Amino acid sequence: MFSKLQNKLNKYARVVSATWMNGFAYPLSFWMWRLRQVMSIVIAISLWQSIFAASSNVFGYDQAHMLTYIFISNIAGFIVLSSRTIEVPDVITSGDLSLYLLKPVHFFVYWFSRDIANKAQNAIFSCVELFTLFLIYRPQLAISTHIHTILLAFFAIGGGVLLYFFINMLFGFMAFWVPDVWAPRFLFFIIMFFLSGSTFPLDIYPKQLVDVLSYTPFPYLIFFPAKVWLEQLSFSQIVTGFGALLGWILAFGILTSWMWSRAIKGYGADGR
Amino acid sequence: MIKWAFRSIMNELVISVQHLTKHYKVYKKQPGLGGSLKALFSRTYETIKAVDDVSFDIAQGELIGFIGPNGAGKTTTLKVLSGLLYPTSGSVSVLGFNPWDRKAAFQKQFSLVMGQKNQLWWDLPAIESFLLNKAIYEIPEKQFQETLDKLVDLLDVRDVLNVQVRKLSLGQRMKCELIAALLHNPKVLFLDEPTIGLDVMMQKVMRDFIKSYNKEFGATIILTSHYMEDVKELCKRVVIIDHGKKLFDGELQGIIDKHARNRILSIVLSEDVPRKKLEAIGEIKSYEHPQATILVPRKEASERAAKLLQTLPVADITIEEPPIEAIIRDVFQTTK
Amino acid sequence: MKRYLTLLHNFLVISLKRELEYRTNTILSVLFSFVWVVTTYIITTVVFGQAGKIAGWSIHDAILLILVYYVISTFLRTFIAPSIIDFSQNIRLGKLDLLLTKPVDVQFMTSCQKLNMIRSIRGFFMFVVLMLYATQYYPISLFTACLAFVFGILGILGMYAAYYLLATASFWFENIWNLEELFMSMYEAGKHPFDIYQGPLRAVALYILPVAGIGAIPTLIIRHAISPFTLALFACSTLFLFFLSRIFLRYALRQYTSASS
To answer: How far is CA C147 from CA B91, B216, C71, C140, C222, in A?
Structure first.
């Protein structure tokens, strides 16, 4: 009984390790990707340092808190937003989906495992990079060390991870009905760029907009976990935040499961 | 008593297909911008009968060939047997399971190999993909090692196991794909067009492998192909499918006996002979002095051969069956 | 020379036809860049509203920079980027052989073959907007305008060369799918008021990866905020990069072996 569970875990552990190895398959490409991550952080730091040189309080943030936000949102960003599930549309349109259907693997768990490997790579390397940047810039940071804050942030990030996974699966499954998923997904990325808090805190926007946004899933990907860690939320805000996060996870989770079961039934299993 | 039980188990049907039908709805769209607009509101569709009332049974250890032209329904049948497609009507049972349920216990006992599909991870060495499959199929370590060793030796790929798949030649890649598909010792093996796109050497390797695999591992194998060579070499029993219908199910020789209408007289002439004289014997298929081939009706083959020998200067004569391909082509023609 | 012009004409026509085929893609692409421009503008306004001046750059400076940057990057993405990415892929897939047997300069063929006409119309439109904006808020003499234009071209050249160098590396490194991503982040660097980059960072951004400078230099010229020395240095480094890319390509072709099947 226990060994059955062990076998199942072993399956997906293998997926994780294969994906991990695969990430290093092209060293030059890999280092360019890392360079890109570093560059975007350097740009953000330079920008905000200049802004704060001119005025010491912007959008309710001082320099320390803003830079902290940059660091935290980057960490959260790397963990939540790195994903291999974006490959799912290709798997479907090419007909390779058949290969998954033939094997005793759960499609969702398989891809989640792949995501975990990707996130782990991102998290580890970005920690090293962020630490190096910290040593170079020596910014004043306001990172909390309260255990309960860290735990809450951990759960919030975990929630963000699940939420983003289901969102990606949703776009992936659209490939069953729409030949080119590129357009809607690209639109989503643009919206996310501005509305998830990954590049700057959403406090920049007027309050009414932020309130409206709290009814969408976007802020819960990065902005919410970062705010939790920055201890800038009241208790009731944290509770409602987690409630909304859970609600969105359930909504997307149910939607994607339903899409999957419908799609498989009508699947033509044809290859190209 | 024990013997009877043993025999009945031995003859147990591994695959049973009853009145399988699979229809597809294909939406038709008129070309151009106007057509696209119209399609938004109403779509006409036509139903394609990919498989139409097909039934057959297969016993354990059989090596069966499905032949038919492209689009005949062979691949669709295999996909239904694998659980990839949901039958429109009819019942299917493989190893006692309903394939469509896609139970893990079922999936661990069969394998579908499709010629063009690659399951190996492109940027990793083949062995990594094998280890992944080992975990997925929950193969015990000892069994995995034994099977792997046997397959690797059978296909002679021991030195490429640790090379990234993208660096392998087409032949090596294909062999590794095969191994990946067979690591879990499937009792039932479906091969969809296994020799397509391969050169003559590789085709032979593939056929030899299938033959050995059937013997060594005792697996039940269905292979689909539109190359007669595959079927001639490997399969005693053959199922002919065209336009979704089963046209024939039985031994290869049976097709010849049932459908071949002609026989071929291949002759070598010792002197020049005008065409007209040869035409009197039968339909000339080719005539390039000194060789000629003439088609004669089956029943009269010996008579006409005798007449030929009496009236014409013949140095050598052979009476042959027409090639299977031609017979099968005939079968398809007559049942259109 | 005439041959190349005719070829260029052909490429333009083919590209236009292709874009009209993929109508949805084209429309969406226009929509997206519109959304992008608008939101960038909004955010810039919002940030400057709170901050006043950033590293000595006023809001007008920042908007000018964004316009210059947009025009230049549109030019690159229209005329050059698609072909170079194809080039990189062709090397990887071994399809380059066909190209090499044709009697045309390889660099030309790989650079200009795939064009994006609709985007170029947007670029032209923004160029007009840029000129209007610049002349409204800044004193521009003919000399300044020409100088800015020349350095805009130089910047494009440098960017093109950098892009090409990296693509040529496809001969040795099999997968550079991060190529475009890297350039995306370099673009990002160029969008912000340039003086936020201090010290060694600034030197790198201006001379080693002139990418960051492509938007900045013409803007600085218009603002009369740049020294002739810097201009000269920038010109040298871009020209150097360009010749490097040609030499590198020739070297790569000599070493080239076609990828196996």
So the answer is: 79, 80, 16, 11, 9
Kindly state whether C162 is in contact with chain A, defined as any CB-CB distance less than 8 angstroms.
no
What predicted TM-score, i.e. pTM, was given to this entire model?
0.81
Neighbour subunits, C (≥3 Cβ pairs < 8 A): A, B
Q: What is the mean pLDDT of chain C?
A: 74
Q: Which of A11, A12, A102 to mutate to test the interface with B (most CBs of B within 10 A)?
A: A102
Q: Do A11 and B135 touch (CB under 8 A)?
A: yes
For position B35, what pLDDT does the model report?
Answer: 55
In 3D, which of B174, B179, B214 has the Cα closest to residue B198? B174
d(CA B5, CA B174): 41
**Most confidently modeled range among A147-161, C115-129, C235-249:** A147-161
What residues of chain B lie within 8 A of the CB of A21, using their CB?
Answer: 124, 128
Rounded-to-integer distance, Cα B92 and Cα B90, Å: 7
Residues 6+ apart with CB under 8 A from A47: C54, C192, C196
Cis check for the bond before B290: say yes or no (omega within 30 of 0). Answer: yes
Q: How far is A50 from A63, CA to CA, in rounded Å?
A: 10
Distance CA B238, CA B231 (A): 8
Give contacts of C192 with chain A, Cβ < 8 Å: 43, 46-47
Strand partners, A61: A58
CA dist., res. A261 & res. A267, Å (int): 10
C32: nearest CB among A28, A47, A186: A186
Give all chains having 3 or more CB-to-CB distances under 8 Å with chain B: A, C
ipTM score here?
0.85
CA distance A219 to B165: 42
Residue B284's CB is within 10 A of a number of other CB atoms, namely 13
Q: Let me know: does B136 contact A103? Beta carbons within 8 Å.
A: yes
